[in-house]
Please model this.
Amino acid sequence: QRQGCCRARLMRLGVDLGGSKIEIVGLAADGRELLRRRIATPQGDYRATLTAIAGLVAEAEAELGQTGSVGIGIPGAESLRSGLIKNANSTCLIGQPLRHDLQTLLRREVRLANDANCFALSEAIDGAGRDVETVFGVILGTGVGGGIVVDGRPLAGANAIAGEWGHNPMPGECSTLPCYCGRHDCIELYLAGPALAADHRRITGTDLLADEISWRASAGDDACEASLNRYESRLARALAQVINILDPDVIVLGGGLSNIDRLYENVP
Model:
């Protein structure tokens, strides 16, 4: 019995709360993956999102027969002053006491961290950025985020927004594209997955998802090729600003659009 209790305390549950999916992983004390599950994120519904996370945790623990600690990577950041969520492209989270509500539901301590910071730290420890001093981790998914790791430690910043390049203005663009943050022409409006699809639609009048645009470009579709050319130019310009300020050893791409292989040839 005592041995079983020790295992229960040592299991860790990690949750990735994304704009389109919520994924949970159960890890043993030695880092072995015990379980992985993914569900769609309830769109625009804060209470349903809380319920979905709690349901994933309950199902994982029931299947594994253990109770675990819970850490969650979230879009946006927790305000150091109020404890409320800010700067989240999943806008239903903004202004909500996410940590407090999850701790009430799960009846235990819950740790929150910015998802891009989690990604950058993982890559710096044992991924594409291992053994270098400075890593900039880029999220190109439902939104656009970034994380900075120096000497193996993530930088959060005085306002918990270090690395959030997605809400700088896109260099070389001048339009009136509105952003949820209240400004316009943010990098996220050009480089997120939905942004690539929206750009293609504005130019061609055709509705395609980002991965469809990539596939059709590789098959010789001229309109899709042009859309990817615009995307690559914008990504290069946006990252050039980061390089001028941070001068990282490595830039690592994550998120759904990081699976477009041609980015690694054309953007540098």
